[in-house]
Design a protein that fits this description.
Layout lengths: L1 H19 L8 H4 L5 H26 L13 H41 L4 H30 L3 H38 L6
């Protein structure tokens, strides 16, 4: 029952987001890579987004204690879990830094340019800006879970800590997946049309 309600809520939110983006210029995704302006800011922007997606997949995988871990082994399971937490912490710290830099550039430069180019995009850009606030809360939640897991020493505490990390990172990854797609749907056509440049 809970899963069904969650799925219905997610479907309604997706429809709302699609409606907000309805005024955005459209160039089909399948045409992006063949567009004459693709190898400018658009391909660079998409490259960053793909890097974020890849990093998030890795973090979700590393935080899942049921997944095989290449850094496993060692004299006992607690040591292997501690190595996993250390790798998670390093990888998350790097992603967190890159996301903040990327979104800072969007907030200061890209979004204002998009609105100047087309005032009709104000609501859609506002949605993406609001997403950045939500993303920051999710990043803080994941950061807190990882920090707590780093302090754990027993196998049980480490497993529980990693489970909390996994939950926080799945929430972040799910949210970011939709956010990145929405950003691309709004901004890539503008970049391809030569309206946006950073």
């Amino acid at each position: 029952m809970q899963n069904r309600k969650r799925e219905e809520k997610a479907a309604k939110e997706l429809l709302r987001r699609r409606k907000v983006l309805g005024d955005a210029p459209t160039i089909a995704r399948s045409e992006w890579s063949t567009h004459p302006n693709y190898h400018s800011i658009a391909s660079h922007f998409l490259g960053f987004h793909e890097h974020f997606r890849s990093d998030l997949r890795k973090l979700v995988r590393v935080s899942n204690v049921d997944e095989p871990y290449r850094g496993g082994g060692g004299r006992n399971r607690a040591q292997a879990l501690q190595r996993r937490v250390r790798e998670l912490s390093r990888a998350f710290s790097q992603l967190n830094s890159h996301l903040h830099t990327h979104h800072s550039i969007e907030d200061r430069h890209v979004f204002p340019q998009a609105i100047r180019a087309n005032k009709g995009l104000t609501t859609a850009v506002g949605m993406l800006e609001k997403d950045h606030g939500t993303m920051n809360k999710l990043l803080k939640g994941a950061e807190g879970a990882i920090s707590t897991a780093e302090k754990a020493r027993s196998e049980t505490d480490l497993e529980e800590g990693l489970a909390r990390c996994h939950q926080a990172l799945v929430a972040l990854s799910t949210f970011m997946s939709q956010h990145l797609q929405d950003e691309e749907d709004l901004l890539i056509p503008l970049m391809l049309e030569g309206v946006l440049g950073v």
